[in-house]
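[job 4471] stage=fold_predict status=RUNNING
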Amino acid sequence: VGEHLRERLAAGPGVIDAMFAAGAIVGADGRPVDPRTPYRAGLHVWFHRELPAEEPVPFPVEVVYRDEHIVVADKPHFLATTPRGRHVAETALARLRRDLGIPTLTAAHRLDRLTAGLVLFTVRPEERGAYQTLFRDRRIAKEYEAVAPHDPALELPRVVRSRLVKERGSLTAREAEGEPNAVSRIELIRWRGGLGRYRLLPETGQTHQLRVHLCSLGVPILGDPLYPEVAPPAAPGDFSRPLQLLARLLRFTDPVTGRRHEFRSGRELEAFPS
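[job 4471] inference complete, writing structure tokens
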């Protein structure tokens, strides 16, 4: 950001004047700064750098539930949950903040960009920690569905326990020796034509946990560009091969209101519809 600001300053005072006039420079309270505001030691001002163009994700985010404390959304494949890397405006969080008019909305957890399904968002910043604790303390039931090859010799249901490691800069996680930190229950719902539809019940929430565990059983999820092998990146705008993984259910007791919630995604996995 500092380098970007230096570039804008080098462009001349007219550019900065235009940023002030547009309200693009704000104080810590989020309000536009008046260019006549006198200097004060320790004063911080902020501006958002100009973002590169992003490929629009042509699928909607559906709001499943909303009250004064939380928003539960049904995220499509290919849409990131929160801004990260080259995905900023085209994220579920950015869309919901804009469409619902809730600038304080934050995500209580995150789904991979390629995974579809339910995501829990919090409305009030001071309550976010209470909802995040649900995930940390495993007081929220999560159920996923996936489509992968069917192996008649694979005995299911079963619980997979392993230690997952994801190193900085690596696209993939790997299983390693040591105390297990990832636990998943794998069930077969039904199968036909060489494909199986699986119910996945993660007890932990390690990065790519379900994808790695199914791959380790010899049935990698359809459409997975990372497991078992890293595939070349898809061309921009290519949404033809979604990862067949869906966050189907969230069930928990609201830590703020005490209400008992159960939410189900209305989406279908196209490779094995109901």
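[job 4471] summary: The chain has five helices and 13 strands.
[job 4471] exit 0
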